[in-house]
Specification:
Blueprint (H helix, E strand, L loop, with lengths): L1 H80 L4 H39 L1
Length: 125
């Protein structure tokens, strides 16, 4: 009778242990799925940041080239200005005025890149 009682208790304990083991395995699987989803999300964020950086770098390169061209044109106009009439002097002033928006656009692009990078880094964390 005592042995039967102990066997019954042991059987109950083994059943509870098996249930706990199955629950632990299910929790481990769920944790694995969550980690995989998080890694996938981080990968998407990293890809988005890389794409955004590449886009901004390409834009900055175009703006820098346009700025160099505009500066060269302004310098050429300035040298002609000394030999030319008032009409050429007005064109040189217009070229210098055209440089200001290009410089502002370049600065805005750099600021947007920094903000986007910060936002993506904050989302990843």
């Amino acid at each position: 009778s005592q042995l039967a009682h102990e066997a019954g208790l042991r059987g109950g304990l083994e059943e509870r242990l098996a249930d706990a083991l199955r629950a632990a395995e299910a929790a481990a699987e769920e944790a694995g799925r969550c980690l995989a989803e998080r890694d996938e999300e981080m990968g998407r964020h990293e890809a988005a940041v890389a794409q955004l950086e590449a886009s901004h770098q390409a834009r900055e390169a175009k703006l820098a080239e346009a700025l160099r061209e505009a500066e060269a044109a302004a310098e050429a106009a300035a040298s002609v200005q000394s030999r030319a009439d008032a009409g050429l002097a007005e064109e040189a002033a217009a070229l210098r005025a055209a440089l200001a928006p290009l410089q502002a656009d370049l600065l805005q692009s750099q600021q947007a890149l920094l903000e986007a990078r910060s936002t993506c880094e904050a989302e990843v964390q």
